[in-house]
Specification:
Elements lengths: L2 H27 L9 E7 H34 L3 H9 L19 H12 L1 H7 L4 E8 L1 E7 L2 H4 L10 H5 L9 H14 L4 E3 L1 H7 L8 E8 L12 E4 L36 E2 L5 E2 L6 E6 L3 E6 L1 H23 L11 H10 L13 H10 L6 E2 L13 H32 L2 H4 L24 H37 L7 H18 E9 L24 E7 L1 H23 L13 H6 L21 H4 L5 E9 L7 E7 L11 E2 L1
Parallel strand pairs: 2-12, 3-5
Antiparallel strand pairs: 1-10, 2-10, 3-6, 4-9, 5-9, 7-8, 11-16, 12-13, 14-15
Amino acid sequence: MSSRAGLLGCAVLSAIVLALNVGMVAWASNCPPSEDNTKILYDGSCSTSAKANIAAHAAINVLSTLLLGASNYSMQIAMAPSRADVDKAHSKRRALTIGVPTLKNFRNISILRRLCWELLALSSIPLHLVYNSSILATKVATEYLVTELDESFLQTGISIELPGLSSTTVGQSGVMAGTGYTEVKALFDRILREAHAWENLTLEQCAQSYTPFLLNSRRTLVLVTPSTNDHRALPGLFRMVGSKTWMCDDRTSISPDKLDADGSAAFPCSPKRAIFGYRDHDTNWQEPSNPIYCLAEPHRQKCTVEAFRPFLIVISVFNAIKFVSILWLYFNSSTRHSKLHTLGDAVVSFLNHPDDSTKNLCALDKVPLEKKWRTRSSVVTVRWTRRSQRRADAISGIQCIVSIIMFLIAICGIIILLGKALSADNARGTLQSAFRPSSFTSNQNLAIVGFESLQNATLTGLVVLVNIPQLVFSVFYVFYNSLLSIFLQASEWNAFSLVCGYSVPLLLFSTSIHFLISQAIFLSRISFLDFLGRPSQRFGALGYGNMYGAHPGQLLAATYFSPAILAVLVLSITAFLALLFIGSKKLPGNMVMAAGSSAVIAAACHQRDSGPRTVLEQDSEGNHGDEAATKALKWGDVGYVLQIEEDVVYRHLQFSTRDVMEPSEGAEYA
């Protein structure tokens, strides 16, 4: 496929993504607004909203990968030099790079193509920073009343008296301001009427069911104790709680719960605890009676999937910039061979129009050629030694070391973040539940980055925080893609055939990593409700954070998911090892290393039609460049020589349509 056809495909692809993004803006515009003017795309079951959110982000990352892939391809086309650019650079003894994404050519291309490249590059930054945050799912957590009642209440029902319920006990129960005896009494009346029909759970089931920080499927909990005739203490202990800390074993460190990602959460609990503890205030504990089973009130919260319409508009605008830039490149690439996009383009151009500045340099690899090219005053001859090269030899030793260090630093960074995440999960007792298969679509995970330190963060700050990893990965991906292109181009040059089968796996890898990063750290809106369904504003162990302000009971937070971080780590290590493996493969043949250098390519395209014929006889038709450019080519010793000094014979290496010989060990080439 020609580069012009590729640009047309990229333009069509960016137009399709643009149409979908504009359609998303239109859909969101017609959806009802939330309290803070986001658009509610879905309002219903929390499990459904969690699955819809995952599906939405999968679609977002597919679209963004396709759009950025089209953009990256177009940027490479924009950076590809024309033959005029190469000739100008060669006149200054400066080589350009062919067929590999590089900034080396930047100052040698036209101003308009430079501007086009800059627009394509800069328009990618907003996409990385806001695309995944344009859609978010809300999480809903509810406080609940936990109490103990004599089993006999199931028979007596509403007729039983509750002398243990008073204004004093209500005041000690941890209710929020504005809630008093009347509200709590109404709740107990409902318990007496309805609890017989609630879920009957064993103590272990009860502990497991009320372990999640985001409780959205159950609410009021009754600990049923053995029947007695003494109802003077009914109800027994009761408490308004927002987390599982009321059933912890630890009574020595009473302090507000911490959910920071530093592993400092208080009250480590076992979800299999069968005897429930009770904390009546910050320093003292009271033991409840020995419950025999639990009654749990089924309660399905509603969750939403919301869209930030301004973000969708920003995405559409920069998508449009990419579309226009790619179209400009397409309409300014009308001459098929005006740009040297690939090795094949460069070889054809130099065969048809040889470059005089690179004569007699046919036996030099990229680095020594460019060095001697700038300083030589006469013919450069090289005594040939057999090459045994690997693909990674196409980059310098310093480039190789720097590349390995960069990738190792990135992998170590992911390992450190994963360690902190796992430590925090373990401290909260959610480590095992986080790695259950169902956790990937669960709405019950609450793992907040900097719960206290980031509680006053702005929307912009949180969006940048959760999307910085997307931007960092994209930078590494461009670098990774460049290295891979160099390795594959080295193989293509030596075998003089295209290396296929890498584009699709690379595209799938990019999409997968972007999606996993979007699940590893992401923006969440968490709504906290009290036991009556009103916004909760309580702090620490009694609630979920300082949420006073314009939207009480709501928290916009950066949340993380440890299994996704682990998946990113595994894929990153796999990709790094794959790159090392590809780079370590030996190159076929015994050829000079071009590494995309326009000077090496040009030097290999000089056709020798005259001179002594000491090894091979020249064919009767000659070996003219315009004919060679349209035929199958081979590279090697064509047998033509240059008699430059008396009694000294110089052989020549070039692309030829005829049979060629392997370069001769110890022979002089120029």
